Amino acid sequence: MAVYHDSKCRRCRREGMKLFLKGERCFSEKCAFERRGYPPGEHGQGRRIKVTGYGLQLREKQKARAYYGVLERQFRKYFSDAEASKGVTGEVLLQILETRLDNVVFRMGLALSRAAARQLVRHRHFAVNGRVVDIPSYSVRPGDVISVREASRQVPAIAQALEKAKGRSSVPDWLSLDAESFSGRLLQKPSRDGVSLPVQEQLIVELYSK
């Protein structure tokens, strides 16, 4: 599988916003976006780019891809699935991305970043409805219970994530978490208001509909 190897901080600077790709570092003074909030490159500080309609659409798509850690081929497949489904295509696309197992693990506070969540899932630390799942893109359905395997509850990355999550932000209302039992549940598919990503999904729809 192809993997993005370039600097994650450059992606935040390119999009002009924090995408929280490096977990705890994004909340510290070491965050590159806080220190250099201008676009990357030799002329980033003085560069003035005239953004066209296509440019705006492309940036929204790239922002969403970076945020969820999805490569182009898979992102396009998600769009095709959303387009073929009932409902508003843009909102359905975000629901598909939000209900990926790695994103659900991150949203519950069981990992410090989506990249960390993907690695933990691949290493077989999580189960869905009691069955071990090691596929980060696994689609979680309403009613599914996501739990940390009993043998994995002492994994430092998971314990640290839970500790950090206590004083930061609550779990989205479309999820529930029982920290004592290291498990949570997908209550329902997220509404548009329940997705915190500031992206204009309609521009993504327009881009792929050309």
Describe this structure as you would to a colleague.
There is one protein chain. With 210 residues, the protein is α+β, with helices and mostly antiparallel strands. The chain has two domains: 8-97 and 197-208, Orthogonal Bundle (Ribosomal Protein S4 Delta 41, Chain A, domain 1); 100-188, RNA-binding S4 domain (Structural Genomics Hypothetical 15.5 Kd Protein In mrcA-pckA Intergenic Region, Chain A, Roll). It has nine helices and five strands; from the N terminus they run αααααααβββαββα. It has helices at residues 8-15, 32-35, 53-68, 72-84, 89-98, 101-107, 114-122, 156-166, 201-208, and strands at 126-128, 131-132, 145-148, 175-178, 183-186.
Question: How would the blueprint of this fold be written?
Answer:
Elements: H1 8-15, H2 32-35, H3 53-68, H4 72-84, H5 89-98, H6 101-107, H7 114-122, E1 126-128, E2 131-132, E3 145-148, H8 156-166, E4 175-178, E5 183-186, H9 201-208
Antiparallel strand pairs: 1-2, 1-3, 3-5, 4-5
Helix pairs in contact: 3-9, 4-5, 5-9, 6-7
